Amino acid sequence: MRIGEAAPDFEAETTKGRIRFHDWIGDSWAILFSHPKDFTPVCTTELGYMARIKPEFERRNVKIIGLSVDSTGDHEGWAKDIEETQGHAPNYPIIGDADFKVSKLYNMLPADVAGDAKQRKPADNATVRNVYVVGPDKKIKLILVYPMTTGRNFDEVLRVIDSLQLTAKHQVATPVNWKPGEDVIIAGSVSDDEAKKRYPKGWKAPKPYLRIVPQPQ
Q1: Is 23 considered catalytic here?
Q2: How do the domains of the chain map onto residue ranges?
Q3: Catalytic annotation, pick one of 27, 38, 43, 74
Q4: How confident is the model at residue 217 (pLDDT cuts 50, 70, 90)?
Q5: How far is Cα 213 from Cα 203, in angstroms, rounded to an integer?
Q6: pTM
Q7: Which residues in 109-179 belong to E strands, given as ranges?
């Protein structure tokens, strides 16, 4: 799995019904975030937080979908705990992956994994802790991999999506720790002649390859 490759398509049962992944994405962006097992503590906080900030993703035309290596029936029971402890129940689909199909398709589990998901401990599925951002073209734009003991920073994922959407629309790149509204860098693929047409007011260039301009609107 590499950035720029097509996100593997699949059919799966979710807490919101059966989906085909690419059809479900449609013309939107999507974030798929995975979990090693239901009723795990760090994941409980993550699922609740994602429900709370879902409007921020919707504002960016991003759909949210979760995955956990258990059945959708288990997910529904877990949702009650999430709402009780986090104040928000998941308001987006969660894939039931008790057969490991999607986890193996996305290389989060080895291809030879088999058996009863209920007999596996969270540590057996420790590698199912990935975040994938997929564009409307169904290609992978971002992959993040977290250990089980570290909660994911979904505010950072929002920041990256802002950058991805900006740089997809304009031929720019975003510098270290960039936040929306801050200066950006003219992409190296843009010649100086072309840049002069796009930015008639010019740019700051501490080095010829580092051309800094205000964020395009």
Answers
A1: no
A2: 11-151, 170-213
A3: 43
A4: confident
A5: 5
A6: 0.94
A7: 130-134, 140-145, 172-173
| Closest-CA residue to 1 (of 134, 152, 124) | 134
Give the model's pLDDT for residue 1.
85
Options 9, 137, 155, 192, the catalytic residue: 137
Distance between CA atoms of residues 59 and 57, nearest Å = 5
Closest CA to 138 of 15, 32, 18, 58: 32
Q: Angle, to 10 degrees, between the axis of helix 72-86 and the axis of helix 41-52? A: 70
Q: Which of 129, 212, 146 is nearest to 174 (CA)?
A: 212
Superfamily of domain 170-213: Antioxidant, Horf6; Chain A, domain2 (3.30.1020.10)
CATH number of 11-151: 3.40.30.10
Active site residue 38: no
